[in-house]
Design brief:
CATH topology: Glutaredoxin
Order of helices and strands: HEEEEEHEHEEEEH
CATH architecture: 3-Layer(aba) Sandwich
Distance between the termini: 47 Å
Length: about 180
Amino acid sequence: MSLIRKSLVLVLAASMLALSACHSPKKDLVTSPESSAESSQSSGEIQTDAKFSFTTTDMDGNTVSFEDFGSAKVILFNMWEPWCGPCRGELPDLQKLYAKYKPKGLMIVGVYSDIDGLKDIVRENKIKYPMIKSCAEFEKFQTGYVPTTFFTDGKGNLLSEESYIGSKSYQEWESVILSYLK
């Protein structure tokens, strides 16, 4: 393969990752090498031996805890940031999925660290699912990339050993959601 072709392949591969996820330069979004994107381009391993729980605030400063979502059969936690294009790009699809599958037991929770511009983006995209501030309990799921998504049941049991790194289409998320809602 010629040098030009090799360079083109590398540029295309980097572009594909950039289109689906944003690397976060923020220290609070980067965790241990075990959960970094180096272990996988599409997922990050997470520890599943303990029940997940947290207490934090929503974007209006109200206290929120895991127990507030405990009646859901499946909870999709989508860690995203307002400055991330792929994160913002999947919000309308996540909202459609939330509206369609909430009656069947799905809860979607947006998790953010940076509030700058958040309320405007939520309003513009007519997002109805909860948005909560990231806290220490979410650190074990951080991969250094956003969006990063993981699933639990309503009791705090992790439903997968992997986090999903990068944005997904409506059809991709629907397939994953349906596999957990069985």
